[in-house]
């Protein structure tokens, strides 16, 4: 699967919820997420622009691999995700084969659905408010049109700047390095 995702800093969750509702977006769920990112013993994921994480939500646990970004316009990349039973056991396996936990990212996420877009309002510990809009495509689909559609939706919601191509983990790392 190819995930086409764009995130932008927003001023207010409440204002954005009003805009989403007036557009016709439907709130689908709210959940707490904890992501444990790992560093590979073989390659430097910061250099290759890849990510490996274990995500725990209110009801599920997943291992996710995210490949390098495919272009410089959006955070478009291959994503492979697998449901697992235990974050602790997966973490133990990763650690035993040489992977090291790099950072934990915690957030509260409110999901909305609008047409073929999944929209989330993200309250990430240590960061200002963000909104992500994404579309999932098959590996053979052309992602450039999807990217354009996402930016058009942001514009309809009144957002024309504050876009980020970096992950929340990278944003938190940057913040930590500034102090």
From TrEMBL:
It comes from the Archaea. SUPFAM superfamilies: CYTH-like phosphatases. Residues 1-174 form the CYTH domain. It holds the Pfam family CYTH. CDD domains: CYTH-like_AC_IV-like. This is Class IV adenylate cyclase. It comes from Methanobrevibacter thaueri. The gene is cyaB.
């Amino acid at each position: 699967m190819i995930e086409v995702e764009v995130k932008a800093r927003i001023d207010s969750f409440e204002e954005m919820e009003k805009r989403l509702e007036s557009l016709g977006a439907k709130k689908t769920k709210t959940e707490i997420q904890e992501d444990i990112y790992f560093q590979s013993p073989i390659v430097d994921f910061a250099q290759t622009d890849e990510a490996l994480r274990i995500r725990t939500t209110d009801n599920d646990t997943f291992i996710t691999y995210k490949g390098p970004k495919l272009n410089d316009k959006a955070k478009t990349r291959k994503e492979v995700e697998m449901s697992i039973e235990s974050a602790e056991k997966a973490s133990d396996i990763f650690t035993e084969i040489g992977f090291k936990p790099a950072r934990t990212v915690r957030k509260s996420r409110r999901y909305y659905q609008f047409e073929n877009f999944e929209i989330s309002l993200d309250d990430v510990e240590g960061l200002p408010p963000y909104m992500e809009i994404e579309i999932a495509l098959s590996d053979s689909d052309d992602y450039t049109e999807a990217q354009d559609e996402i930016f058009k939706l942001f514009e309809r919601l009144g957002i024309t700047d504050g876009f980020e191509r970096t992950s929340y983990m990278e944003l938190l790392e940057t913040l930590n390095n500034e102090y």
